[in-house]
């Protein structure tokens, strides 16, 4: 195992991490259906500490257009209602004495197009991150060749592998963008 193998393995791991980050980001993007990840960013004031919603309540998808939030302490109902409203998610929670219902309104065509644009923008950011990883790997390999740690032919093979990893990584991001676009545009 030489420097070239280490650089390629590291590049592969970094690209996988970029994919994982993008996948998580895509889960939080709103589609027309109820999805618990929509509320991932909501923080509730729990005894003075901003706490993730899922740490103070049980969240459930009641049906395709409704999320229910059942707090562990009933005194939190107005606090949860307020936190969801202030999260700027375009959601209008309704609460009663036991739980908070979060109806998911249908998206307008215009809003769907805005979301798709947002998804594509985030995809471009991730592809740029992958290309930056390629640049870093390429610089390491070139430096290794210059310092005599890698033979010239081995460096060329490694650079080809780096390009292949990058192409596969970018292709996977494109596939995720297309899948999310399809999900958002499905009424």
Report the mean per-residue pLDDT as an integer: 89
Give the overall form: elongated
Task: Find the CATH topology of the largest domain.
Answer: Topoisomerase I, Chain A, domain 4
Helix-strand string: HEEEEHEEHH
CATH superfamily grouping of the largest domain: Ribosome-recycling factor
Please tell me how large the radius of gyration is: 22 Å
Tell me the number of strands: 6
Strand numbers in spatial order across the main sheet: 3-4-6-5
- The number of distinct structural domains comes to 2
Give the number of helices.
Answer: 4
- Describe the largest sheet: 4 strands, antiparallel
The CATH class name of the largest domain reads Mainly Alpha
Strand content is 5-15%
* Helical content (DSSP H or I, runs of 4+): 55-70%
Can you name the CATH architecture of the largest domain?
Orthogonal Bundle
Describe this structure in words.
It is a single chain. By secondary structure, the protein is of the alpha+beta class. The chain has 2 domains: 3-28 and 108-185, Ribosome-recycling factor (Topoisomerase I, Chain A, domain 4, Orthogonal Bundle), CATH 1.10.132.20; 36-103, Gyrase A, domain 2 (2-Layer Sandwich), CATH 3.30.1360.40. Helices cover 57% and strands 14% of the residues. It is built from 4 helices and 6 strands. The protein has helices at residues 3-27, 77-86, 109-146, 152-185; strands at residues 43-46, 49-52, 57-63, 66-71, 94-95, 100-103. It has a 4-stranded antiparallel beta sheet, covered by helices on one side. A two-stranded antiparallel sheet has the order 1-2. α3 packs antiparallel against α4. The model has no long low-confidence stretch (mean pLDDT 89).
